[in-house]
């Protein structure tokens, strides 16, 4: 059912200011129909809807709240003596948009001679808006009482469709069937929706608006929807109207039972389920009674206005972005449970993870998300912090983009003992026994060098133990975890000069003596510097080491692309980890 467009004058309006101003229209309206009887040539009923009278209202009904029949509208008729007592009748196409319309039976039933005693609108199936026989969990009449299943979600919703329940008694002596409102409605119109808006959700604090309700059609016009006994639906306080890819100006009319000074909240989401707009209203001063319509005046909304930049990096992006090498702790925009990195460019071979509190203890997905030629391009990264779901979608919606000014224009590593320039680089995973010596490590590369950063167990580093780093770019090899054997390349050298355990002393300079692929060299050009962050020598004390290895010293090393690397110190190894040159 759709609103009837007619011009009227408002007699009384109650304005309440919260985020938006609302007008309460206490309408208490009736919809009149002609006598509904089976036609001789089939089961075609004629029903008309009169303009709603304002004689008994607190305010003249707004022009958009009169009712006409809409395409695919369905009413239900109850035949108590017929086998299938509830029968659907569908509006004929020619009657759409009219105050008077013809309805034809939409089932194969033939209730010839049967007496109808009640009518109701709307008719539901288990999916939403189409016409099939109602199941026990949907609207139907039983023992003369209409049982309405007020849904939490309505699919296939169309612009401005009225779904508020109506009932009417049918008696053999009546000349007309008068549909009466059994519930109320809340109307929201938004003018500037972005194309692809998916659904609107309304919540009412502390009051049930979905689930099982009933009303006696014999008391239509007096009785309102009553909650069925039982507690299973008591917490159903929200309803969602799904309107696939709506855009521009769109009106949602939410069906509700009677409400007591309702406190409302609205949320509109796009097809990615990201919040386009949300607002909370103060509790209304008046109750919403049977036949009342609470109208939120049409307005433009600030799209995605509640997103803010997460400078604290509760959740942050780590990976390749906009043509850069791996970046750690890239700030995202957040609103509630959603974190977004919008409008960024990704190339084939780029990878990323989303991690919590700048730590790899909790990061998603479990393996790096990898781009290929088929899914590279300008993308939006959307992370749901509740479900941990990650969406990578084409850049389409005007999501707010973070300010990247906090990041340097060109990230680089300098081997000098100052470890702060490693903050943008991801931490690699250490193997099961690696933390006994190598607690964590990082990798970075540029056109000339490979760079490594290690967090070491301070009181186990001596001049007698070598640090060994291995590389693999051929999956056909047989890798041995012990001492990084059978890899395509290994580099082994001694970064410390202290002979006894305790506090390491790094060479803090160039190391030319090394073993590369099992052969001793004297021109390795490795640079190593250390950093001692604390005076403690306890088992949990750390020592920081950063090194650079010239690419030219590693035979066969690919110029770019994905490969694997691992490190070992005193037979404690990290296992191979994925890296990208």
Short note summarizing the structure:
This protein is an all-beta fold and 581 residues long. The chain is built from no helices and 44 strands. It has three domains: 2-299, no CATH class; 308-406, Immunoglobulin-like (Sandwich); 419-580, Immunoglobulin-like (Sandwich).
Could you explain how this protein is built, in words?
By secondary structure, this protein is an all-beta fold. It folds into 3 domains: 2-299, no CATH class; 308-406, Immunoglobulin-like (Sandwich), CATH 2.60.40; 419-580, Immunoglobulin-like (Sandwich), CATH 2.60.40. The protein is built from no helices and 44 strands. The strands form 8 sheets. Strands 2, 3, 13, 16, 19, 20, 21 and 22 form an 8-stranded mixed beta sheet that branches. An 8-stranded antiparallel beta sheet has the order 4-15-14-10-7-8-9-5, with no helix packed on it. Strands 35, 36, 38, 39, 42, 43 and 44 form a 7-stranded antiparallel beta sheet that branches. The protein is elongated, with a radius of gyration of 35 Å. The two termini are 62 Å apart. Residues 4-43, 47-65 and 125-137 have low confidence and may be disordered.
Provide a count of the helices.
Answer: 0
Please summarize the sheet with the most strands.
8 strands, mixed
Beta-strand share of residues: 35-45%
Count of discrete structural domains: 3
Average pLDDT rating: 78
Overall spatial form: elongated
Helix content: under 10%
Radius of gyration: 35 Å
Unreliable stretches (pLDDT < 50, length at least 5) are 4-43, 47-65, 125-137
Number of strands: 44
Distance between the termini: 62 Å
Category from helices, strands and their pairing = mainly beta
